[in-house]
Design a protein that fits this description.
78 residues, single chain, alpha+beta
Length: 78
């Protein structure tokens, strides 16, 4: 039985490629990887863990793509 990449309590803050691809709605990990650096942000490399994507960076990219760049902090408008 395939493992569900989404934990019951929500999406993890730090994601491996499989989880990040599912989070972004990509059809496959390969499709997600082809879009890294073009649409999706580049991953962080963790020693002994490999590549990981931050949920906040993925969210920011999704907001930018969808035209929802809005204010995230009051300091942004000052």
């Amino acid at each position: 039985m395939p493992r569900n990449p989404r934990p019951i309590e929500g999406w993890p803050r730090l994601m491996a490629a499989r989880t990040a691809a599912a989070y972004c709605g990509e059809r496959s990990v390969a499709a997600f990887r082809r879009a890294v650096g073009k649409i999706w942000p580049r991953p962080k490399r963790l020693t002994g863990k490999g590549e990981r994507w931050l949920r906040e960076e993925l969210d920011q990219t999704i907001d930018e793509v969808m035209g929802k760049g809005g204010v995230k902090d009051l300091a942004d408008v000052l």
